[in-house]
Structure formats: C-alpha cells, structure tokens
C-alpha cells in the first residue's frame, strides 16, 4: 500500500464563493490571487438589496429592481425576510406591528408569507436572493458555481441556521460551511492586521446585533465568547423614525397613512435617506412627496441620537456579558472592529469606544467586510489558504428537558465547536417502545423560557422491564453550529433509530420537495427557452424559403422538388406551436434537407451574378 | 499509546492512533482525553503546553481541513474535533480535570445538586440563608453582611484550591497503587468545594437581581 496520499481532489477543484446573506443587503465574494474580492453585478453594483418580488408571470424580481416594487406592488414584494428565518408565528408577533409581512394561517412551525396569491417560506424567499448572487458569480467568473460558504449572525440559534442552510440548498448551492458574521469579519481584517492579540468584533447590521471576542494566535482565530440579539439593528431605527413621520404626517395632512403599503414604503425610504445623511452631517431633511403632496421635516443629530439612544444602549449589555464570559476586562481588548452599516452612526462609534476604551477600526467597508471574510473561509475550505483556521463557539447552551420542565444543560454556551455530549437514557414503563427527548437552546433554567429545538423520538426499543434499556445518545454540534444527534443501544451495540421532529423550520422532506420543485422549475425554464429558440430558428428558415420563392433559383427546381418543400413547410407549421423543441427542430431539419438543392442553386446564382458583376467592373 | 488499531485506510497492523503512522490518514479517534493529547495521566498540567497541543491538534483535525476528503475522513474529523474540544475544555480547568480522572478511576462524583450541608459549614450556611431571606424580604441593610460572607467563602475556595494543588502534586508523584488513596482525599475536597462554590453563585445571583 502507498505510504503517502495523493490529493486527487485538487485536480477537479471547483470554486467556492463566500456569501453574506444580509437583512438589508446581500453580497458574494471570491478569493482572487491578491485577496478576497466582491463579485459585482453586470451593472457594476456590489450589493444586492435583500428584496424579493413575485412578478405577474410567476418569476421573481430580486434586488435593486425589486426596490421600486416595494412601492408599486407592495403586496407582492418582501424585504428583511432574514428576520423570519427559523421562526414561528408567535415569535414574530412584535415584528408584525412594524413590518408589512403578510403571514398566512397555520404558520406556527414555519412561517408562510403571501406574495400575491402564492405562499412562500422564508428559506424559499432567501433562496431567490442566493440564486441572484449565484447568477452574478457565474456570469462574472464564467463558471458554474455549486458550492458556497454562507454567513449567519453569531447569535443565530439552530433553527435559524438550518433555515439558512435550507435556503442554500433550495437555491442549488451546497453550503459547505455556515460562518458567523463577526468571525468572518475578523478573518477579512486578520489578513493584513496584527497577527496576535485579543480583538472584539462589534457587528450592528440591518436586523441583527452580534459581539464576538477572539484571540488571534499564529493564524488561529479562536472565538472566546459571543453574544448578541437577533432582533436588533438598523431596521429598528428606521421603524422608529417611520412611526414619528407617520404621526407627524397624520396631524399635518389629517390622514393616517400607516395602513397604506405604498405610502409607508415611500416614507420608509425617505427616513432611511435622512438617517444615512445624519452619519456625516449635523442635520438632514426627511423629504417626502406622495401623490402631489409634500412633507418636509428637519431632523437634527441631537434629536436623532435621543431617539435611538435606547437602541444603541441595548447593544452594550451583550458586550459586557461577552467580556465576562471571556474572562476579560476592557483594558485587555487590543482592538475593536466595526461591522455592519449601522456602525456608521457616530453615536454607535462613541458608545463602542467608551465601552472598550479603544478607538474602533473601520478601514474596511463595514457593508462588505463579512462577505470578504466568507471568501477567505471559502479559500480555507478549498485548501487555497492553509495558514489560517477558525475555531468558533456555539452561542447558546444546549440542554434537554428533565422532570418538572427543568433544563439539564449538556453543552454550555461559548463551547468551541464541534462540541459534544453523551447521555444514557432508559425506559420508565415495562415494555416501553419509545423514548422522547426534548432538546432546547438557551440559558434559562426552565424549558418554557428556552427555545425548543426539536423532539427526538428513540423508536423501536426492544420491549423489556422498565429501566432495563440503555440507550446512549450523542449530541454533537458541528462546525456550522448545527445539532446532530445519534443514538446507540448499549445492550445490543446497534444503532438506535431516531425520528427528528423539529419545533421550528422545515422538515427534511419539505426541503427536499422544495429543491425538487426548484429543479423542476429550472427544467421548465430551460425547456421554455429551448422551445422559444427553436421557433426563432423556424421563423428564420420559413422567411428564407419565402424569399427564395421570388428568386430565379426557385424556377430552376423541378415540380417534385417544389412539392417536397411545400410539404416540409406544412409539416413545420403544424408543430410550430407545440411545446416540444425536439419536434420543431426535427421538422426544421427536414425542411432544411428538402431545400438543399434550392440553397445550392441560390448560391450558384449569387456566385454567377457576383462574377458577372466583377466582369463589368 | 494504548489506543492503537489497524488502519482503516491502508490496513497496516496496529499503526493508527489519531493518524496512521504509515499512510497518515485520519483514524477513528480515542475517546480518552489524556491519550488524545498524548499526555501522562497527571493532575498537574502546564496550561501553556496544553494550549499549544490544542492548537496543533486543531490544525490537523478541524473539519475545515477535510471539506474535500472522503465521507469517512469527514466523519472522523468531526468526531475527533469534538473530542478534542471537549477534552481541552475539561483538561484546562483543574477542577473539571480532577473530576474527569476521578470518574475514569471509578469514583462516583457527588451530585451537582447535593443539598447535604457539610457539618463544618453548618453555622455559616445557616447564617447565609437567614441573610438571603432578609434580602428577599427587601431588607437592604443585610447587604454588607452578605458581601463579607461572600468574601469569606471566596477565601475558603482559595484555601481549598491550594490544598487541591498540593494533593494533585502528591497524586502525580505517588506510585500507581497509592494513587487511589490520594484521589479519595481529592474527591472529598472537591465535594466541599462544589458546595461552597454553589453558595457563592447563589449570593451572586441574589446580588445581581438586586442590582438589575
């Protein structure tokens, strides 16, 4: 046997892209020879706004083109769908007051959103954004892209991570790794920054907040602790400004516009413009024109800061907790890195600086740094980058329900992943065939205060007296932060069968059905295109033959030849409107064959005329 | 080390621990924390050395390094990395490390929720519970007393840690057959320690609740 391994895999190496699937904007990046690069769209734009609209013909409009549709077709258009990933209806009751999500009945386990008269789950909508990024990457890089690294907020729980991975699969992407956004950002920074020390990454995006504290040591990026809030971000600031503007307009115009989707979107876009301007000017004007009426209001930075102070303050608690968990004082943090568009707000920067007693870094574009880091992680996975390694942690403790609804913790938060725990279960009744294990995530002591993850049903246990069965269950959180459960019957040594019932999110069967459907859709699209192309070709040949009827060449054909051509034309016209491109092409070929002598004669005539012409010259 | 087996990949006899020594392929990992780190079963460990071993093994075993390998290698990498991380978490903490060795040697570890008060602490615990009751009742004057008690418990913990450390050294220096006796002493110190540390946590919880 050989004593060394030949790496055949590099021979068929496929490119892995890095994707930041954001609440507000999404980006793709790849690793170039010189470092990570954002993949631009055909128009040169670097970000795809995370907005999806369902067009009348059933196709999707994604990104900048869909932004206009937020106003023109608000009932078919959705944004900030990341807020709904991996959630149930009751989780988002608060959001519904502020976001124009149209949620269908029966959305307890998986939310179903109405776009027009159709229903979609958040992973399906996110998949449309991913498909757009995939198309961009394929167009820009000139090769098929099937593998990706996708970033998620560090504080995302298991269901939210699974939903993100499902979205990738529905989009036709193999998600090789889910990377935490702040960790990805540290990778992008770590490329040319100091190689040793403790860094804190403060990531305030459109809809989520994360804080991660890492130790950098000889290329290892070791996360020491992470904390955050998956419902805190720039959206919250927008909503607050929006509420004020709506109230103001109501008193000025005497009309409540808060239930008018079109007006709300117009005002939302205006307050966002003002918010962004306030990051580099002391005052900005909220300027709205709606149906011939104009509303203007100056907003000074002091007032703006008073309005958002509590939102900014809500990020500080998680920062302190993360430092406590890492066993560090602010003085021990060497550098602070800012990520996410909301960190452009001067007040946010001041708060971060005061807390960590260090001037924060923001050399890299805070909108792009996560995608760039994802591209670095993609290169680590492909083996192109070998001197770096991420050691991330699980943000939430994992436990199981025990007697009296109390949680028994198995894996503590901030444990380096992959992490595992093993428990032995038994039966409590004679002849019991099933044991149900309820797995939860969270820090509280009671099950009702934690997030239900799933119920694992150990099935087909051999009947025996109570307490005799011994089933060893292994809980393993993988490098994506996703739980895997396996079980073994210790008496027989055999693998124990388990049925997984996720509390939130899609079942494996549902995801597979969606992937199938999206495949079928893709096939349908392809078929349609092929039919259309075949018809165009038929049009061309029919027009050419029609034109030839006027030529001398037509007269040179025998009567049989002319009859054969007419028959072939007829045959083609019969199938012209069918949906079978093979059939259309077959008749085109037959017509082509029947007109071969006509074409030759035409050619000869043309040559003769050309030669005649030369002689005249 | 003991966990040698035939390599699943090249078939070499007794060639494999974490990696096959002939073909260098990743193997089914050992579940034993000390073996995994290739360390002798000592209670005193050098944290810096442990950290360096952890980083070195992470570089070799992490799933990121096996994305384009066979399914079998991916499985072993995931399994090995999780044991590595679990082992590092336990071994780097002297208390968890000692508990791990005790369990391995067949000593039952006291229940985490053991409510039996060690006799020598009866008086303190009684006083503490009184003070906590008063605090819950809204009496804030008890705060300085609680703080003093908390500090007293922390001192006790520090003393215990010193005692443990010398017991660790005694264990590591003792011949194999004398070790169990030392471990028994360690276990009783650990139980005491856990009890006191739970008391401190209880006080902290109440104080935090007051501050919040």
List keywords for this structure.
heterodimer, A: 617 residues, alpha+beta, Nucleotidyltransferase, domain 5, Actin, Chain A, domain 4, Substrate Binding Domain Of DNAk, Chain A, domain 1, 4 domains, 6-stranded mixed beta sheet, 5-stranded mixed beta sheet, 16 helices, 25% strand, globular, disordered N terminus, B: 212 residues, mainly alpha, Helix Hairpins, 61% helix, elongated
What is the structure about, briefly put?
Chain A is of the alpha+beta class. In chain A, 39% of the residues lie in helices and 25% in strands.
Task: Give a written overview of the molecule.
- The complex is a heterodimer of chains A (617) and B (212).
- With 617 residues, chain A is of the alpha+beta class.
- Chain A folds into four domains: 11-232 and 314-391, ATPase, nucleotide binding domain (Nucleotidyltransferase, domain 5, 2-Layer Sandwich); 234-310, Actin, Chain A, domain 4; 398-504, Substrate Binding Domain Of DNAk, Chain A, domain 1 (Sandwich); 511-616, Up-down Bundle (Substrate Binding Domain Of Dnak, Chain:A, Domain 2), CATH 1.20.1270.10.
- In chain A, 39% of the residues lie in helices and 25% in strands.
- Chain A contains 16 helices and 26 strands.
- In chain A, helix 3 packs across helix 4 (158-170).
- Chain A starts with 15 loop residues before the first strand and ends with a helix.
- Chain B is mostly helical and 212 residues long.
- Chain B has two domains: 1-92, Helix Hairpins, CATH 1.10.287.110; 119-211.
- Chain B is built from seven helices and no strands.
- The N and C termini of chain B lie far apart (52 Å).
- The model of chain B has no long low-confidence stretch (mean pLDDT 86).
- Chain A binds chain B through residues 1-5, 9-10, 13, 176-177, 217-218, 220, 377, 380-383, 389-391, 415-421, 476-479, and chain B through 10-12, 22-25, 55, 58-59, 62-65, 67-69, 78, 81-83, 85-86, 88-89.
